[in-house]
Write a structure and sequence with these properties.
Structural class: alpha+beta
Number of strands: 11
CATH class: Alpha Beta
Radius of gyration: 17 Å
Oligomer: single chain
Helix content: 25-40%
Shape: globular
CATH topology: Cyclic Phosphodiesterase, Chain: A
Low-confidence stretches: none
Distance between the termini: 49 Å
Order of helices and strands: EHEEHHHEHEEEHHHEHEEE
Length: 236
């Protein structure tokens, strides 16, 4: 893979929280520690190929994309990227608060907002724009990997402008839990994951931080190297 190491700016629940542990245990990887973790025994007994169903998501850790993975521009450094993250987080903004649910999205299962959130859309747009100067140009290999022939014209424009097709109007906040599944397989797995998620009793979730992930090489999973709490705007 070209352009390694790669960085990404994601939302991830704070280390040690019930939601963070929920995602790490299901994916078998804790991005905060950079370590594999054991799957819940009952899930493995019920679904013997659970490791395969979560393999793609495991590589990235439990997260929601705000700025998709990118190689650093030649003129930028990791230290400068961290400083920019700190500046971004310090700017007051309306913090998105969502009602999280587990549901199907484009064939896979993820934790997603139960309702539309303009503040969340704005946060994602701001991240895409603010960190664009740090992104190295998209290579022909990376562009082809996105299968532009399968994208809409607008998504192809996003890919060429921002290096990722699912931004701006096409952004959908999601914290992935499985790969794409057939309808027959997805239904019982979705029901099981919804029950586990409901046990967290998480009525609302504040999207209250940005988290910098780093992938050192092609064989490595993404690992969290720093996070910054977002600054809430003062209420009038």
């Amino acid at each position: 893979m070209a352009g390694l190491p790669r960085y990404a700016i994601y939302y991830a629940p704070a280390a040690g929280t019930a939601l963070s542990q929920f995602g790490a245990s299901l994916l078998g990887y804790d991005a905060w520690a950079g370590e594999d973790v054991g799957f819940p025994e009952d899930i493995v007994n019920l679904i013997p190929d659970w490791s395969e169903l979560t393999a793609d998501a495991r590589k990235y850790g439990f997260h929601a994309t705000l700025k998709a993975p990118f190689a650093l521009a030649d003129t930028k450094s990791e230290a400068e990227l961290c400083a920019a993250c700190a500046d971004f987080a310090a700017a007051p903004r309306v913090l998105p608060i969502i009602r999280p649910v587990v549901d199907a999205i484009s064939g896979f299962i993820a934790a997603i907002p139960g309702d539309a959130s303009p503040a969340l859309q704005m946060l994602a747009t701001d991240c895409v724009e603010a960190f664009e100067p740090f992104r190295a140009p998209t290579t022909a290999e990376d562009r082809a990997r996105r299968k532009p022939e399968l994208l809409t014209p607008r998504q192809r424009d996003h890919l060429d402008r921002w290096g990722y097709p699912y931004v701006m109007e096409d952004f959908r906040f999601h914290m992935t839990l499985t790969c794409r599944l057939s309808d027959e397989r997805r239904r019982p797995i979705l029901s099981m994951l919804q029950s586990r998620f409901e046990a967290l009793a998480l009525a609302t979730l504040a999207i209250d931080r940005i988290v910098l992930f780093r992938q050192a090489d092609a064989r490595a999973g993404f690992r969290i190297i720093a996070d910054w709490p977002l600054t809430a705007a003062r209420q009038p």
